[in-house]
Specification:
- 2 copies of one chain form a homodimer.
- In chain A, the strands form 4 sheets. Chain A has an 8-stranded mixed beta sheet with strand order 6-10-11-18-17-16-13-12.
- In chain A, α4 packs across α6 and α4 packs across α13.
- In chain A, a hairpin with a 2-residue loop joins β14 and β15.
- Chain A contains 13 helices and 18 strands.
- The two termini of chain A are about 35 Å apart.
- The relative contact order of chain A is 0.11.
- Helices cover about 30% and strands about 25% of the residues of chain A.
- Chains A and B meet through β1, α4, β6, β7 and β8 of A and β1, α4, β6, β7 and β8 of B.
Amino acid sequence: MTVAHIQDISQYEGQNVTIRGWLHNRRSSGKIHFLMLRDGSGFMQAVMSKAAVGDEIFTRADHLGQETAVSVEGTVRADTRAPGGYELDVSGLEVVGPSADYPITPKEHGVDFLLDRRHLWIRAERQQAILRVRHEIIRGVRDYFDSRDFVLADTPIFTPSACEGTTTLFPVQYFEDTTAYLTQSGQLYNEANAMALGRVYSFGPTFRAEKSKTRRHLTEFWMVEPEVAYATLDDAIDLAEGLVVSVVERVLDRRARELKTLERDTSKLEKVKAPFPRISYDDAVKILHDKGMPFEWGGDFGGPDETAISDHFDRPVAVHRYPSAVKAFYMKPDPNRPEVALGVDVLAPEGYGEIIGGGQRLDDYDLLLQRIREHKLPQEAFEWYLDLRRFGSVPHSGFGMGIERVVSWVCGLEHVRETIPYPRMLYRLYP
Amino acid sequence: MTVAHIQDISQYEGQNVTIRGWLHNRRSSGKIHFLMLRDGSGFMQAVMSKAAVGDEIFTRADHLGQETAVSVEGTVRADTRAPGGYELDVSGLEVVGPSADYPITPKEHGVDFLLDRRHLWIRAERQQAILRVRHEIIRGVRDYFDSRDFVLADTPIFTPSACEGTTTLFPVQYFEDTTAYLTQSGQLYNEANAMALGRVYSFGPTFRAEKSKTRRHLTEFWMVEPEVAYATLDDAIDLAEGLVVSVVERVLDRRARELKTLERDTSKLEKVKAPFPRISYDDAVKILHDKGMPFEWGGDFGGPDETAISDHFDRPVAVHRYPSAVKAFYMKPDPNRPEVALGVDVLAPEGYGEIIGGGQRLDDYDLLLQRIREHKLPQEAFEWYLDLRRFGSVPHSGFGMGIERVVSWVCGLEHVRETIPYPRMLYRLYP
């Protein structure tokens, strides 16, 4: 018995194989059952005729519920009308695990109903396509950095102090008498790692106790954060641009079938080529004013502002040199104009907003200490971070890219909740 | 000005280049300074003669502290006596960032002293070698699964309930009135993902609030966990064996220099070839008895037991069919002998103990429900997990491999605390 995976089915044309999977759906027309099978690697139609399998098996197939686990034997036949180009002419069927009253039927369901059944919802063709694109994006990100000799250096999830204030931190009871906080970013540690290993990146989950219920926020999300010793703001923008182009090209190249399942307009993604427009915060404010939007110089952009700015371009746009006052304490001020910081955000097109944030870090000991005090941060917790400026400080830059936002954009989704197998949100901790 | 990375230095023989890095150490002999440079990609000796650079630069170099950030210009010269095969004849030196009284000197330091300065300790050659081997192992693991068409499906860090009891769980205050727990394993979710995508793996941090202070435990550690629909216990052992062989071969092949830095006896690693011995729990107990060790059938192996069993073999050993009573509720009993479970542990040689644990999962609804009740687990929290047996249950198997334990074994370390950039332990949350 040859067990074939549906994704490899073209290798078995004319052969007798067994598909082990599940009955995705079924329709019947007189003496033929059309069984849509799925085995995790793909979807494929199996054609069962009463003449080929006999009365008993044929009648049994009449009553198979959606998601019944089945082992189906048959001959692979090329058929240009079939979605994958092949069908299976069934000669035998065995029920491995029954299924009755599967809750997710082909009819429409509300999103809360589906999220409560996320462990089953991921069996749907569309959800599988999203998760495969997610995997491809993650592989693309890792290959991009690995092929450039970056060292993956994991940063801790348990941190003793806050990177940017404590209101959005999740506290953890760390044994009897200590409180740890879940990381919001590996950046500070990446800076230490870059001083050791030169070019590094972290890739892991990060956490934000944000009470907002927007389509862009999860409480638990994955971030990749590269950091490079001796790199400037422009180097960081080059690196970010190369990363985004490389990842989008890879998904277009390797996940065309999934993008088709998602009905993604790929012509929009094909425009994602270097060079990206690079505009200053001042330029971005001017775009808003030209569109008649009220915005005062000095503030941070909100979602609608980001959408308006990115709508101005057909590819991602890098917006740099934000007012220092709205950016984190560790950002290096522009030496030519200290009221702005050498930071950058990359905004995705089609209204998807910020996918990358980063810039050049403050490498001067005295100024960093001053900033820590101005921000009323506990200096003691940052002594190790100050050490990086005490012992051989160098210019360095990096950024963070949120995986779920990139998946959401590349797949063309309405909401980030479908970009991860088990989304965690304000009111969502199950399953 | 050509900026060269030390790891690529052989490409620049005879050329004038700039190395941007740090002064690792320095010794002087009359009119020559020997400067050991590091730039994150490697270590390289730079030779500065007074004749070549003049009095002023030469004298300045007299006072450079360890870890001073320097940009050094010079000509690359082949020298068979040099560790990397090349030296730099210095023509110029610029101090980028000063460093005085660097705390980690070439003398011996206590491990607590070093762990308090972990952000600096990782600059040491030995620590860099470990972190590069870690990266190579992680790449090897991912490539192994990706090349076999597994889908990476991330499992949640925030979980609503405990997989195996609550005493070793870290509680998180999840907004006002909810408690979440940090994941100890993605397995239950992987099972749901395997029912959707066939062959899946998760790769992420896991957490265990273990109060023990052993050389094998961290509170925060990384695990890879594959899960395969329609796979049996033997399939899982095959997969685990292939993974371990592939990862060890890759490190031997690509990280020979790092293993040399670590003074690892690579002849031990070269013996890690398939097939691994596969013995039953009963056989393992017999080994202990033959060695005169007291051990009663029915218990779980402790560290010394694992060491005694694995010392019996020159390569990893798979121990299968443990007593059901000591294993998790979701393990499938052996149909031929229900008092043992279809579980497997893989023990590394040289006393490193368990690196992999897994097996075949219980796929029968009634028996799973009975086990949940026997273990007094809250059934409501496991309804989604029971759904996997309600709707098309199939045989399935998988395992988890702890990354830090593998790094510790491959590098030949005494303690897992050096296997991760920022180890978290009972009394260790800083830096």
